[in-house]
Amino acid sequence: MMQTRLRRPALALLTTGLLAVAVTACGGTNTSDEGSTTPSDDTSSAAGGGELNIALQGDITTYDPWSAQSGYNGSLLSNQALYDSLVHLDASGEPQPWLVTDWTEADSSHYTLTLRDDVTFTDGTPLDADAVVANFEYAKTATTPGECNEWVAGVTATATDATTVDIALDKPSVGFMTDLGTCAGLIVNPTAFDNPESLSSTPAGSGPYLLDDTNSVQGQVWAYTRNPDYWAPEAFPFDTIKLTYFSEATAASNAAKAGQIDLIQSVDATDTSSGLAIKLTSTDFRGLMFNDITGTLSEPLADVRVRQAMQYAIDREAIASAIYGDAAETGYSTPFTTEADGWTDALKDTYPYDPEKAKELLAEAGYADGFTVKVMTVPFIYGDAAQAIAGQLAEVGITLELSDQSADFFQQLTSKTWPMITYNFSIGTNPIHTYENLVSPNGFWNVMQNESPTIEDLLGQLDQAGDDAARTAILEEIAKEFQTESWYLSPTLVRGACAYDDQKLVVDSPPGSPVPFLYMITPA
Amino acid sequence: MTGTRSPFRAALGAMVRRPAVVVALVWVGLLVLISVFPDFFAPYDPLKQDLSAIFEPPSATHWLGTDNLGRDILSRLIFGSTGMLQGAVLTAVVAVVIGVVLGLVAGYFGGWADSAVSFYVNVLLSVPGFVIIVTVAFISGNNVVVIMASLGVVFSSAIARLVRGSTQAARNLLYVDSARVSGLSTPRIITRHVFPNVTGPLIVQTFLFLAQAFLILASLSFLGLGFDPQSPDWGQLVQQATQEINDHPWLMVPIGAALIFTVLAFNQLGAGLRESLPQNRRESMLVSDRPRVAPKPANLADRALTPDGTSGLAAPRELVDEDLALDVRDLTVSFPQDAGEIAVVDTVSLHAKRGEVLGLVGESGCGKSMTALAVLGLVPAPGAVQAASVSIAGHVVSSMSEKDRARLRGRTIAMIGQEPMVALDPCFTAGSALVEALRANRGMSRSEAKATALELLTKVGIARPMAVFQSYPHQLSGGMAQRVAIALALTGKPEILIADEPTTALDVTIQAEILDLLLDLRDSEGMTIVLVTHDLGVLADVGDRVAVMYAGEIIETGTTADVFARPGHPYTRGLLAAVPDAAAEGDRLAALPGRVPLPRDWPTGCRFAERCAFRMPACTQAPVDATIVDAGHLSRCLAAREVAAISPAHPSTEER
Amino acid sequence: MARLVVRRLLLAVPTLFVVATFSFLLMQLVPGDPALMILGQNATQSQIADLHTQLGLDQPPMEQYVSWLGSAITGDLGTSIITGRSVVSSLSLALPPTMSLAILATVVSLLLGVTFGMLGAVKGGWTDRAIQQVAGVGLAIPNFWVAYILILVFALTFQLFPATGYVPINQDPVGWLKSLVLPVASIAIANTCQILLQTRASVLDVQSRDFIRTLQATGIRRGAVLTKHVLRNAAIPVAVATGISFIGVFSGVVVIEAIFNTPGLGNLLLTGVQGADFPVVQGTIVVFAILVILTNLAVDLATGWLDPRVRLS
């Protein structure tokens, strides 16, 4: 089973920014379930207490949520311990009242939030409407902006009274309330903004836990004890939390096996070496991308028949089961699960495993003798699978020269010198975001700014789509076109995961989040 | 060295006789072979995958099983050896080339160049190598060539130091010899004088580097650095195996074994060669507490070794003669060699009266020092001593336990050696050595011992005993050190003192002083002195009796006067003719062409025959027994009387 | 001796300077932009430029070098690009675990290595050959392999020691020791073999020296010769070998600390290199160099103490 070795910062970045796409897309509805402030773990509040030991794959470099990275980086869990969130999310990604007890949405650009009136920061400063406004202002000016800051970049917030905040957005966002349940809704004591530097070493929040300085070591271990003044202690059942940074995945597995760790924040879905239960989180569209659609670096790739030949040459099911086992489903070079809007079973049959057909297509395109192409890989993201693909393409005469570029992934990615690259994309539920990322000329993965007029045109039609059925029809067409143009070669949809001790814990996460949320970790 | 084989080649010869080295050679040979011809040896294409047969255990089709993509592990191992070996060799080559060049430059030119190279070495030694290599691996984007070359640079410091030292030594030597040796060009000086000395250590170091390079490549791969992901290189196999260690521990076995065997093999080759190099092949001087009993040596003529036998060169005597301070009968010392047990001292009989000075003479390699050591019971392992009897001051030591015998050393019999500078423990002052010996031999308290030590130092002619008492051996001159050694020998008030070439290493003026001191001690303490020397001239002045040794045998014995006046053996004649004050500096044994045969080459007949001007056919046919020249003057020569009659042999003795 | 120490310390200054310069140059070659690492793909050009200014990366390399070196001399090694922490404080946190590892591993290796090396050299024969072969294998096994086996056996199967982590000594001395047992053992195995072989070779070498014969001829008992004279003389090269193996630990920790998640210098270096965190890597290399120079100085002092020829020259 594949196990990732070194979690380099690149991986964290690669996967994190995508939480935005995923979670933002969840917020389809805007109704608030007033009164249902039930903490997600009401069954277990009595069974609380004890210590929660979590292995992180990233260092916590600051206690400032507005400067923090999340994802594999541990900051999200740390910040959820130290700070209160405007809303909580439930396991389906729906926003639930928390600091905000009630909200109204005039349209998707105008929201009014009503705050609790009984919350104070640890120094006694009240957490009121002014504090919330100050946070949104600070988010725009933070020197090292955090990952979620851009979601509130267009916010103009006004405190109409102590517990009411009016929000105007510069452009509509249906998922705005959901965003406030992620890293974009954690409220910092505004007194700290006088000297934001202090937040890199001293938290200033109103959260359920306090940092236990004596048992914490910078860059290594972070210990948290209960905030005795917290207003809803029952929502956070553990008395103490300890986060430990592991730079090496195997070390975390061993620690878990030796009973030192209850939860590993992020693991490869196939990695059962820790002996812990695996909780699947995100679904990743992962594979090799034909970066060079215009053929400037590798002439054969410009011919769609060549790209399609390569789709026929790979045995998707064999790769999925051999490399990922249960942790992946067979992929058809489309960024969709079978439940997604726009999926049709016909997509399954576009590229059956047919090496003969592949050879024919290659011969038609004038490459009967095959060719050689350079592939940039990042083995800890896509190692064995890339080799498996290479092995199968070799059978039809195509040689992939895999080259490990983990050290300077971003530099290489943007250098436009690689005809094919490893990519990974966490699928959200909004397909528009997915296509924007993968196909649009300024999409993140479309680093060579390739253009697909057909898909662009269809995406444009989506805006005018009258009803869901029309929308679905267009999506189906896009999916088909996406497969036909064949920019991406992906035999699998891989699952992201965390690993936890299921004797001790129940763990959940909102859809699309690669890591669990602190208040969704409860005793079993 | 005028030997037929260079010391390095001899070392290679000795090395390949070790079984561990043979195994290592076979492994490395195999490794080289498969890495050059992987296609021939590997059963499959290393990249050929079969996703339906992943992680298979070893079977008839896949001898070492398959990996995560169903590829044949054996084939990957075989193909992977190429890159690994190339990387390691690149490291070694870079290290050796840079190291040798810098070492030569530093050692030969000295001064500024030397300082610069020393600084280079210092800087490299100031950073842990692996730290640099990890950094380089990241920076170079896992370019194995760059990584391994950098490792070579890191390793080069060790080579530079080695070559620098050797070059410096050769250069100093050349300055000393420059009057005589001239007209040699620098490259020739280097090839003739530097390389022969460093070749051995250099190759040892290279083997160790190869081993290290393999380990470091493996460690890098463990961290996910180094080779390309698809390549079947060993590093990649290591990485894969460590990733799968929990689910598929078997993967660790083939690559682990290959890696460990290879590192072990290179280390063995290095260590084997190092221990075979002449400078590292020295025997322990520490005697075992359980002496070895050896079978009869193969190179001895079939002579009876009986207590009353006359086979040795000695007149028949009483079994224990109270007048004799030393009585050795039929002493044989042998060492095990490839050809079997080989004697280096052959049925030697000796005696010395109380208060007498007995000279034991012969060229080096004749066995005289070994005879002296056998008398003391200090033959180094794995030597074995057999004797009809050895008596020291009335104690029959040949039948004693090693423990009892050890008690006699220092108190009944003592020894001073040839090299006073190395005869004293460099870590302790002369005083503390004397105090230790006095406390051991005379049971004195520390303060008594100190007083006595100062007395002894005065007695051996040291003018400022307190200063010497507080000095370390390296602070003493050779003559002074020898006096301290003599004082040490006197701590147990021995009855017999064996002086093994006591003046050879000293200046001519000091030589006379030391000899005078020994004679004074003989007179004042009534000691018996056995003076081992290659220089008959020394004995002319001080010896009462002489025993001449050649190729492990006593070939002539008698009073000094008799032997000097009428040498009864051509060898003795040759030695006399070569006495230094007669001949000019230079080839000292001009009168005696050839050299002493090695013990394993001893002939059955006269061992000197080959070099002898008086050789007759009978000489080589059977062992030669002793002939009486005069009363108490015997010679092991068929023509003893005729030879004795041609005297005088030595111009200076003639004048006397 | 005092002169030797002074000379060594004086030499340390240019050596450190060169090491510092070298580490700076090395980091200039690192591919990738640390700003991209921090800001991620959402970064705009102006954000990147701002961060460059903030990190001083917009300055020409020469100016960066001069300002870095200038601060370094005053003991300020800058702040980490990734974590924003002061490099000196990160280093001071990472130093105790690594030094604990190095010192414990060296003490253990020294005790075992000298004991068994001496045993082999003195006993000879079968014992010696067995010890030599075991030591040979010990030197050939990669340390990460040893570490995995130790974890498998002692942490996972028998649960005697923690599989990962480090407990500061002032927090819990027993926990400190327990947390170090396995990593120390992983490092100490090869180091023990190294010291063992050196001890054996030195003892054999000393035994072959003339003064051993003199001592015996003078009537000093075998036991006294061995324990007093052989050991004392053999200790000199063993001290040097111990220094080398102590320095070797600093190479070993890069791998071992990753396996045991020990928050030491090795881990700091590795994460620093991975994140192109210039100041951290430069600082770590400089600290390693200081440690090595200090170790060499300690070895000089030890050999001087043991060997009068060094002490008095």
Fold and architecture overview:
The complex is a heterotrimer of chains A (524), B (656) and C (313). Chain A has 524 residues and is of the alpha+beta class. Chain A has 2 domains: 8-275 and 497-523, D-Maltodextrin-Binding Protein, domain 2 (3-Layer(aba) Sandwich), CATH 3.40.190.10; 284-495, Dipeptide-binding Protein, Domain 3 (Dipeptide-binding Protein, domain 3, Roll), CATH 3.10.105. Chain A has helices at 9-24, 75-82, 129-141, 176-179, 249-257, 304-313, 316-324, 355-365, 379-382, 384-395, 409-414, 431-438, 453-464, 468-485, and strands spanning 51-56, 84-85, 87-89, 95-97, 100-107, 110-115, 155-161, 164-169, 186-187, 209-211, 221-226, 240-245, 263-268, 277-290, 328-330, 371-377, 398-404, 420-426, 488-500, 505-507, 521-523. In chain A, strands 1, 10, 11, 12, 13, 14, 15, 16, 17, 18 and 19 form an 11-stranded mixed sheet that branches. A 4-stranded antiparallel sheet of chain A has the order 5-6-8-7, with helices on one face. In chain A, helix 6 (304-313) runs antiparallel to helix 8 and helix 13 (453-464) packs antiparallel against helix 14 (468-485). The model of chain A is unreliable at 1-47 (pLDDT under 50). Chain B has 656 residues and is of the alpha/beta class. In chain B, 48% of the residues lie in helices and 12% in strands. In chain B, the strands form 2 sheets. In chain B, strands 7-8-9-3-10-11-13-12 form an 8-stranded mixed sheet, sandwiched between helices. In chain B, strands 1, 2, 4, 5 and 6 form a 5-stranded antiparallel sheet that branches. In chain B, strand 1 (324-337) and strand 2 form a beta hairpin. Chain B is elongated. The relative contact order of chain B is 0.07. Chain C is an all-alpha fold. Chain C has one domain: MetI-like (MetI-like fold), CATH 1.10.3720.10. In chain C, helix 6 (125-140) packs across helix 8 (173-207) and helix 10 packs parallel to helix 11 (265-274). The termini of chain C are close together. The interface between B and C is large, with 79 and 75 residues.
